[in-house]
Design goal:
With about 270 residues, the protein is an alpha+beta fold. The protein has two domains: about 25-125; about 150-270, no CATH class. It contains eight helices and nine strands. The strands form two sheets. Strands 3-4-5-9-8-7-6 form a seven-stranded antiparallel β-sheet. The chain has a two-stranded antiparallel sheet with strand order 1-2. Helix 2 (about 25-65) runs antiparallel to helix 3 and helix 2 (about 25-65) runs antiparallel to helix 5 (about 105-120). The longest helix is centred in the first third of the chain and has 43 residues, at about 25-65. The two termini are about 55 Å apart. Keywords: Membrane, Transmembrane, Transmembrane helix.
């Protein structure tokens, strides 16, 4: 008679139940999370700006109603209401003001005040765009180096100070940084992280999709190919750590999946606190 517990154990240990991790899944998840966070921040910023515009418009309308004389109040209400709703209603003011000599000064005051408010509202959106555009245009293009190692990638180098690393223009500064004590930045055009230690400087550089080591190892390479390229590499829990040829202070770290293929790699200092 078949033991049910033994049979279930045998079934769950079957290799066919393993679900291999899609190559590049880590980068895709990180990039997707960044996009969602960016869209959420944009929605919050837009909602705040619209609320400010609405409150300002109500304040203008109320100040126009309370500031006019009682004998000319009906004539004053019309231009103020029209101007508050549309910016192009200034051309409609002269016909309304011809009914008496008193309204023109008041309607002129309303016209001069409303454009100033409208002008102050429009820059509330434009500064963020204009201030970010020059910064982006002033940056050097992101590096497209196809290989990582032995001392760094692109304009980044292991051991580089945080200030020098930021000055390379390799980071997407709209994301800022996170983490403590090490600060994590994100590479432009790739979404992969770089960790910087306050003690050791640039400690870890994760390779962008498509970037390989000088020995030709990258995402999609097999465990066997890694071991052939780096005979002194060690393996533990789906992680292969290999000394970097030509740089005794650094190592390559390869993450593998159950199908024994690399899905991410990074260059890092052999000693750091990140």
């Amino acid at each position: 008679m078949v033991n049910l517990e033994d049979e279930l154990s045998r079934l769950f240990e079957d290799e066919r139940l393993d679900v291999p991790v899609r190559p590049g899944a880590e980068q895709l998840v990180v990039a997707g999370a960044r996009r969602r966070r960016y869209r959420r921040n944009s929605v919050v910023a837009t909602g705040g700006a619209l609320t400010l515009v609405a409150v300002t418009a109500v304040g203008i309308a109320l100040s126009g109603v309370g500031g006019g004389r009682t004998d000319t109040l009906p004539a004053t209400n019309l231009p103020v209401t029209t101007i508050a709703t549309t910016a192009g209603s200034e051309t409609a003011l002269p016909p309304v003001a011809t009914s008496s000599s008193a309204p023109p000064p008041q309607s002129t005051t309303g016209v001069s005040s409303v454009p100033s408010v409208t002008g102050s509202q429009s820059p509330s959106h434009s500064p963020s765009r204009s201030s970010s555009t020059p910064t982006g245009s002033a940056q050097r293009p992101a590096s497209t180096d196809p290989t990582i190692g032995p001392t760094g990638w692109g304009r980044l180098a292991l051991g580089m100070s945080e200030a020098d690393a930021v000055a390379t223009d390799e980071f997407d500064m709209s994301e800022g940084y996170s983490g403590s004590p090490c600060h994590r930045y994100w590479l432009r055009g790739g979404g992969t992280p770089v960790d910087i230690s306050p003690t050791y400087g640039v400690a870890r550089i994760n390779a962008k999709p498509g970037v390989t080591t000088p020995e030709g190892i990258g995402v999609g390479s097999t465990d066997a190919e890694v071991m052939a390229a780096y005979p002194n590499a060690t393996t533990a829990n789906y992680v292969i750590t290999a000394p970097v040829p030509g740089n005794p202070k650094a190592v390559y770290v390869f993450n593998t999946d159950p199908s024994q293929k690399i899905f991410s790699l990074r260059l890092e200092l052999a000693t750091h606190n990140c």
